[in-house]
Structure formats: C-alpha cells, structure tokens
Design goal:
Length: 166
C-alpha cells in the first residue's frame, strides 16, 4: 500500500492554528495626571513645570534649603533664583527674573519666598526644618495593670431629660 506522496492540486493541508500569544497580565500603571502649576504675581501669570524629575527635585529643595540662616541676602537671593530656574518653564523664568529687577513692577523678596514655599508644597516637599518635639504623654501603668483601673466614671453635669407628651 502506497501512501499518497503528493497532495491533490498541490495544496498541503493547513497547519494547525498557532497558539494565540497569551496576553500579558495587566501591568501596574504608575502614570499620573498632572495639573498645571500656574501662579500670579501682581497680575502677571507664570507657569512652573507640572512635575519635576526626581534628581531635579532634589536640586530644587537643596538649592533653597542649603542657605544657612547666617547667609547673606545675596546668597539667599541666588539660592532662591536658582531654585526658580530649576522649576519655572523657560519663558516664565525669564519674565520672573526680569520682574526681580523691574523697579516699576517689582517682585520683592517676600513674594519670591512665598512662590518658592508654595511650589515646594505643590511638589510635595517636606518641611526643611524638623517639627517641634511633642509630649510622649503620661507614663505607662505598671505591667499587668489596666489603664482603666481605679478610674471613676465622670458624673453627668446635665439635668435628666423629662419625657414630653406627644
């Protein structure tokens, strides 16, 4: 018995369907919806980057907080200006910087500080100085004792309510 060596009409049978590639499991999406960071100083609007890369963020926070309390006003100004240059969009930084020298429509040092502190808050910067220590509360009771032992319920200071006829 001879097997058929050629297929009729020269057509080979269809190959079995290939296994469909399995879809990868849903990937965790770390994307963020970014909001515009616009602010206004005396009627002029400026725009900061909606987010800053981690390395630049570290520069931003460090540049502002690195000036010691005993730093000169010029050192403080330069640190603040450097911080703003890092985060403001180029056009906004140029206009902001121009206003820092404009005697007719100035941005003063207090306004500049307010802008930087607001931006730090928007970018999620933690306070640059530690918070004041808080009390640990009263000492713990002796081991094995209840913290509610020997406490008397407080007496009510309100008068007893009387039912009313309805």
């Amino acid at each position: 018995m001879t097997e058929l060596l050629t297929y009729p009409n020269g057509a080979a049978p269809a190959a079995p369907p290939a296994m469909a590639a399995a879809a990868p499991p849903a990937a965790r999406d770390f994307s963020r919806k970014r909001k515009r960071l616009d602010f206004t100083v005396d009627g002029e609007t400026f725009e900061a980057a909606s987010a800053i890369p981690a390395e630049i963020y570290a520069e931003f926070v460090t540049s502002y907080s690195s000036v010691a309390d005993d730093g000169s006003t010029k050192d403080i100004y330069q640190a603040m200006s450097g911080a703003l240059e890092i985060v403001l969009l180029p056009d906004s930084f140029q206009r902001f910087q121009g206003r820092l020298k404009d005697r007719a429509h100035p941005i003063d040092l207090d306004q500049m500080t307010d802008v930087i502190l607001w931006l730090m808050e928007e970018y999620g910067a933690r306070p640059t100085q530690p918070s004041q220590p808080s009390s640990d509360g009263p000492a713990s009771p002796e081991p094995g004792t209840s913290s509610t032992e020997n406490t008397q319920p407080e007496a009510s200071t309100s008068e007893t309510s009387q039912p009313t006829a309805s």
